[in-house]
Amino acid sequence: MTQIRTCPRCEKACSLQIDYQGNEVLSVIGHRCPIGIEFAESLFGPPQKIVTASVSVKGGVYPSVPARTAKPVPADKSMAVITAANKLHIEAPVRVGQVLSRNIAETGVELIAVKPIDKM
Ligand code: SF4
Fold it and tell me: pTM for this structure?
């Protein structure tokens, strides 16, 4: 079967022709970057989501920093990501986009800070 979908991940809004069978994407045409393939696979594969969490900060003006996964992770890994994030301790200062974990909860996805935290 084939579906035409618009990739929502950037302003180029590529029109994707997605051939699939059941939950498997067979081919994608029309993407200008690999994110289009990730988007197509997210439509048909197992559910995935961006997970948000909080990470402890030492020596900062706030005791923790909000964080999120850099890419969607399998939805059934959400609690593992949150638990792993809660065990992290980062030194201030923290920058927006700073990688707090390169492979949070063995998902292969980075956990990044979403707010800056200055030193006390
Ligand atoms: S496929 Fe890539 S370039 Fe095209 S809209 Fe998606 S993110 Fe943007």
Answer: 0.69
